[in-house]
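Changelog-linked ticket: iron/sulfur cluster example.
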Amino acid sequence: MAEGLEAFEGAGGASAALGGDAFFLTTLKTMVRWAERNSLWPATFGLACCAIEMMATAGLRFDISRFGAEVFRASPRQADLMIVSGRVSQKMAPVVRNVYDQMPHPKWVIAMGACASCGGIFDNYAIVQGVDRVVPVDVYVPGCPPTPDGLLYGIMKLQDKIRAGADRVFEERAV
Ligand code: SF4
């Protein structure tokens, strides 16, 4: 209970102890954001070598479940986080956009690695020079390959963004 109260205090709520009992005060929006950022469900797909690093993030050593983001979903309709792990070819771009469109709002995107962020070493006609030309990106994770630690840091930055963000449920996001 004490841990839960600390979490809500961190989220902008307030708590007080009275004779062994405790209560907290908060807003519905704060509670919803607390739940959203601690239960990010990534869509299950990977595009290239970065995907191996993403898989390692879900393993025992790095344990993405510490951040509540371990529930990789096979259906985009059950996911609210797209981790673009690897280079995006021109052929794959419409598929990536299709997966994004099928995810329910609110949803977020992490561009993992140099290739997803800007094309990386593949400065050619076959590779999209940054996945933000296809879907809106919230967090960019640098590196080639980016480390699992880097992805975890990116998830933490996304959680910060959700904590501080505007009400995005009905927000139309420009692409
Ligand atoms: S950033 Fe590096 S590791 Fe990731 S997909 Fe590109 S070449 Fe592979």
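Closing comment: Example verified and attached. The helical segments are 2-10, 28-37, 50-57, 93-102, 113-118, 148-164. Residues 2-35 form one domain.
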